[in-house]
Amino acid sequence: MSFLLRDATQADIPAIADIYRESVLNGVASYEIVPPSEAEMAQRFSAIVGQQYPYIAAIGTDGALLGYAYASAFRTRPAYRWLVEDSIYLAPQARGRGIGKALLAELIIRCTTLGFRQMAAVIGGASPASIALHRKAGFEEVGLMKGTGYKHGRWLDTMFMQRALGEGMSTDPDPSAYPGTLFSG
């Protein structure tokens, strides 16, 4: 399947909302039960890109959105500002075709370039496919929380994975440069 990666835009919100809706209703990556509205997804998008986090779209040769990925704050306390959490969602027809791998690789590059030092993956349902994807991208398992979600009539585990970006924790970061300027106080 041929595709290209580009920055996501507000024009992608309807397709992003559709992909996320399918994931909420049928999957376990998200622990939301009711899919958010398009307006809510637009608000979430604006909040993420407004803080200069990357938000990437995978586009098929026909122009259709096949998936998207973004980085966002793991937590908004100032000491966490060097840590970013990744999120990746794919349309059903795009799964298993290397699109998630490409989105994650691009997200890692962009977050490293921005100055983040660690990336976390919080994998709902402890999805074996998502764990394998992250492991291939250099993530390590750092914790499993059992029975943290209940969805589709079953208890779900949550896997935490992590990988260093750039210099990781080998040097002190510059608090005067992004992302050091996030959540100051």
TrEMBL record:
InterPro entries, A to Z: Acyl_CoA_acyltransferase, GNAT_dom
Q: What is this protein called?
A: N-acetyltransferase family protein
Residue ranges of every copy of the N-acetyltransferase domain listed in the record = 3-166
One Pfam entry name: Acetyltransf_4
**Domain of life of the organism encoding this protein:** Bacteria
